[in-house]
C-alpha cells in the first residue's frame, strides 16, 4: 500500500502545488452551490401546479420574462437560453467533480473495503452522492435537451409532456437522484469551507430538506399525471381565465 | 496470571463473557493466511480493549501481536479498528459494547507487521520528510546573543492545541480519500502544516505551503468525508483546520 509513498522523490509535479488545484476546488463548490440553489427554486416553481393551473400559468409567464413584454406573456426562447446556460454550468461542475470519482478498479475496491470496515455516516453519505452523481451524468442532459428542443411550459403542455410523451419516467428517476446529490452537496460545501461549525444541526436540516423536497416533487409530479390523463390527444395551451 | 484470575472478587467472577473476533495474519510466516480467531474472556470492571488484549496474550495465545506503550492515550501505539471504528484500544472500554461481541482489525492503509500491529512510524516519518514538518526559522544564521522573540500566550495555547496529535494513524485509516489515493497527505499531515502555518517563528509563507499542499494530494484532494474529525481519539479540530487551510490556500491563487 505504501510502496509508492516510500520512494524518495526529489522533485515531482505531484508534490508541488498547482494553481488549477485551487481553481478546480473553488469552481466545483461554486457551480455546485449554484446548481443546488437553483434546484430548490426550480422544485418550488414547478410545484406551484399544486396551487392550481392559474397560479402555475402566471408564474411561468413571469419567469419567462413576461414583465418585459408588451402583452405580459412569457417568451419560451428565454427557457431555451437559460437551459443552455444551465447545461454549461452542469458540464463545468461535472468536469470539476470528475476529479473525485474513483477512476481505477483498485480505488473502487479500496472504497468498498473501507465502507465495509469503517462505519462512518459522512463517508456513506458521500458514497450516495457519488452514486447519484454518476446517475445524473445521464439524466440531467436528457432533461436539459428536452427543455432546449421543446421549451414550451404550461399547465397543459407540461402535463402532456409528463403523460403523453412519457416523461414521468425521467422525472421519477431524476427527482430522488438530484435532490439527494444536491442537498448532500450543500452540506459538504458548508463544512468544507468552514461556513458552518454545528454539523449535527446542519445534518438534521439537510435530512428534513431531502424528505421535504422529494415529497414536494412527488406530489407535483402526481398532479401533472392527473392533469395529463384528462387531456385530449391534441393538447392546446392553457388559456388564462383572468 | 492464573492466581490473578482466581483471586477476582465475586462480582468480577460473574462478569459477562466477551467474544473477541481478532484478525490474525503474520506476513513473515510463509503460507500464513488472513483469518479471524475468536477468544473468550470474562469481563472485569473498567476493562479496556488494551487490558483484554494483554490478558488474551498472557493467558490464551502468546503469539498474538499488537502494539502498546503508555496504556493512557498518549503514545498513539494501540490504534486499531474496533467494531468498525478506528480508535485507541487503551481508551475503549469493553462495557461500551452491549452485545459482548468485539471485532478487532488492524488499521487499514498501513504496512501490516502482524495481526493488529501496523507500522505507522514509517508512514509518519515519510510524511514529515515530504511535507517538511519541522520549524523553518525566519533567519538561518544562528546568533546566540540575539534575544528570542516573545510569543503571545494565546498563540502558544493555540499551537499547543494542534500539537496534541499523537500520530496514532486513526485519521489516515478513517479517511476513504486516503484509502483510495495513497499519495494523499491525510489529516495528520494537514494538522501539522496548520500548526507551522500558525507559528510566528516559522518563516514559511502561504505560497511556500501552497507548494506542499496546494494540489490533489493535499488540501484540494480532501473530499471532506470527515472520518478524521469523527474518529480522532484526541478530538483535534480537523474539520476546522482543513477548512482554514483550504481557504488560506485558495486565497493565494486567483
From TrEMBL, chain A:
Q: Which organism is it from?
A: Shewanella gelidii
Identify which cofactors the protein needs according to its UniProt entry: heme
Cell location: Membrane
Which domain of life does this protein belong to?
Bacteria
Keyword Protein transport found: no
* Pfam families (UniProt xref): Sdh_cyt
**GO BP, sorted A to Z:** tricarboxylic acid cycle
* This protein's encoding gene: frdC
Function, in words? Membrane-anchoring subunit of succinate dehydrogenase (SDH).
Give the CDD domains listed for this entry.
Answer: QFR_TypeB_TM
Keyword vocabulary terms for this entry: Heme, Iron, Membrane, Metal-binding, Transmembrane, Transmembrane helix
Residues bound to heme b are 42, 93, 143, 181
InterPro entries, sorted: Fum_red_B_TM, SQR/QFR_C/D, SuccDH_FuR_B_TM-su
A Gene Ontology MF term for this entry? Answer: metal ion binding
What would be one Gene Ontology cellular-component term for the protein?
A: membrane
TM region positions: 27-45, 77-98, 126-148, 168-187, 208-227
UniProt name for this protein: Fumarate reductase
From TrEMBL, chain B:
Q: Which organism is it from?
A: Shewanella gelidii
What is this protein called in UniProt? succinate dehydrogenase
- Domain 4Fe-4S ferredoxin-type residue range list: 156-185
The protein's matches in Gene3D superfamilies, at most eight in alphabetical order, are given as: 3.10.20.30, Alpha-helical ferredoxin (1.10.1060.10)
Q: What class of enzyme is it?
A: oxidoreductase
Question: Is DNA repair set as a keyword in this record?
Answer: no
- A Pfam family matched by this chain, by name? Fer4_8
In terms of superkingdom, the source organism counts as Bacteria
